[in-house]
Amino acid sequence: MNYDQIIALLIGLSGDQVDTSAFKTLIEGGHDPAYPVEIQACPRPIGPLEIEGETIICGTVSVPEDHDASGGGRTELIFTVLKSHSMYPEPDPLVHLHGGPGGGLLESLEGFGSIFEPWRNNRDVVMFDQRAAGLSGRSTVCFNAMTANILELAGVASAASEEDTPDVMTQCITELRASDVPLEHYNTYQNALDVRAVTRTLGYDTYNLYGISYGTKLSLEVMRSAPEGLRAVIIDGVAGPAIRLYDTLAVPQHEAIELLLDECRNDEACNTAYPDLGQKLHEAYDKAMAGEAIYQGAPLEPVIVSAMITSHNGQYRNGSYTKYLPAAIYEIANGGEMPTVEMILSRAFAFPKQDAVDVRARTRRLTDDQKRMIEIALHEAGAAREANRALELTVDELKDSLRQFRSLGPLATLFDEELQRAAGPMLGDPEKARAAVVAYAALQTSEPSKDLLRDFVTEHFSEDYQPRLLAIIEAMSETEVAEAFEMVHRGLAATEHDVVTNGHLFVYACQEDIPYNSPEGYDQLTSALKYEKIVRLQWDNSAKYFFEICKLFDQHPRPGFHDRVVSDIPTLAIGSTWDVQTAPSWPFHAAETLSNSQAFLIHEAGHGAVVYQPCVVDMGVAFINDPTRKLDNSCPASTKPEFYIAPWVGKEKEQ
């Protein structure tokens, strides 16, 4: 944040009221009465420079559960509009479609907002949690199953030991199936119709899509089923509907392995230093399986050989270690000392991005005065970074304080603090503590009311704490009561996250994908892979669990859903060499039937190249600004790794 931005932000925050004129129609209910809009507070945090009602707004859009039927139930989709920074923005926003399925993004609003910030220079950015996903998925959350198992999920108690007791996910799916929610309408086709409904009622006649992971499947379905107003599409980490995603679970990692081997083979220095790298990979894995790969006096676990590749998928917060992998594979295969393997494992696969160490490493030929100036610059850069972080935290606290002062009132927060203080004495009585935690978790499924809070307090807290807690409840406004219940949900969100997201994924995958996938299909396809043994180590158990869980669902196949999408809408398809969730070849497969498409493979990137490589942002902004523009290969070429030649290379031949 620069000084002018800080001053403008503080002026905007400290005024008596926020100027909401930019979102006037949304505040009044939206642009299309068929899909009414209701404004609500944005999930926190929203970003240091955002002002609710001026630069950002959040709320719900009500859409039919079944767009093809009149009447029937409706579901609420949580959305945000991030207003363009330009006074003259383009009329077509960028709409981001998140992954999963069922992943959601509004609970990580600030992070996703930062990813798509560059597009705000000249257009709005719109994001929403899809049906049965994130904050839009409360109607498809198995709260009863999670409440009954809350201590096990929190890791403070062991799971039930009875063999006939189903696991939490099985209980969850059973609860969802028994609910009144028509799960058959929670699918990619209805999602595609939601996209047009949301953009229309938010006031956009035309729009662009940026889909990642499942968001690419949804983007392609929008192109097929609801293309009205769609101007251009970016699909990144492509999982097209024509791909049998669960038969091919092991394929993305296998392609990542083959790409690493190809990159080394096509690099003269790497190929000279590490010839026959594919054969060495087989030898390394076989040695590990036989217990003959000895590292620091103990056998190296076979999963380490596979994990060195798999872990690349989550490295966007760290630097890459691709350049070290050929040397590490050779060291495991050849035995003896493993300095490169030690380098990788000692850092737990997490290599820092360029920092002060890299700067100092380049100063060897500089004069002492020049080195001293660099040290001063490094110190000032570090101080500036810390000061900026402190400023962001202060601004976030100011926003929360103003929101509480203007909208919420202080009592919900005070009640939460007093609950935590009163819970201390319970720790000495595990049974009371368990009962209180389960009852607390049950509040998130209830309609907010003072009576429920009173009942919870009087049943589970000692008389020493009851008077103060009950007095706070009595003094609460309706808004504060609602916020108290919302705080229960937020407090348990991290504990329940995995069950919620997996449950939502199964709602989609088991109903619409499983008719086209099977355990036999997975086994047959995986058996044909050259590095079958390595990828099976990572994926066999996942495949077994997935197909077993899906037996709990009814299947709802749709004719034509798994046909390849044919469209002439301008499309940019992006794959990544280290994507072990969606294969690097799948963007090119999707592009074959998209007559106005371009496809690129990005090096040193994992699932969702836009979060790994800045040049992907440049590509994406350029493409959305002009979808007719033919992009060159500058970004892929600039991301190729330069392989590490270990000091021992050549010496083993001399010995």
Q: Which helices and strands occur, and which strands form pairs?
A:
Blueprint: H1 3-14, H2 24-27, E1 37-40, E2 56-64, E3 74-82, E4 94-97, H3 109-115, E5 125-128, H4 143-148, H5 150-154, H6 168-178, H7 188-201, E6 207-213, H8 214-225, E7 230-238, H9 251-265, H10 268-273, H11 277-289, E8 294-295, E9 298-299, H12 302-310, H13 325-334, H14 339-346, H15 356-361, H16 368-408, H17 411-423, H18 430-442, H19 450-460, H20 466-475, H21 478-513, H22 519-527, H23 532-550, E10 571-576, H24 586-591, E11 597-602, H25 614-625, H26 634-638, H27 651-654
Helix pairs in contact: 6-21, 7-8, 11-13, 12-23, 13-14, 17-20, 17-21, 19-20, 21-23, 22-23
Summarize, please.
By secondary structure, the chain is of the alpha/beta class. Helix content is 48%, strand content 9%.
Task: Considering the chains and any ligands shown, give keywords for the structure.
single chain; alpha/beta; nine-stranded mixed sheet; 11 strands; 48% helix
Q: How would you describe what is shown here?
A:
With 655 residues, this protein is an alpha/beta fold. It has a domain at 411-476. It is built from 27 helices and 11 strands. It has helices at 3-14, 24-27, 109-115, 143-148, 150-154, 168-178, 188-201, 214-225, 251-265, 268-273, 277-289, 302-310, 325-334, 339-346, 356-361, 368-408, 411-423, 430-442, 450-460, 466-475, 478-513, 519-527, 532-550, 586-591, 614-625, 634-638, 651-654, and strands at 37-40, 56-64, 74-82, 94-97, 125-128, 207-213, 230-238, 294-295, 298-299, 571-576, 597-602. The strands form 2 sheets. A 9-stranded mixed sheet has the order 1-2-3-5-4-6-7-10-11, with helices on both faces. Strands 8-9 form a two-stranded antiparallel ribbon. Helix 24 (586-591) links the parallel strand 10 and strand 11. Helix 7 (188-201) crosses helix 8 (214-225). 42% of the residues are buried. The mean pLDDT is 91.
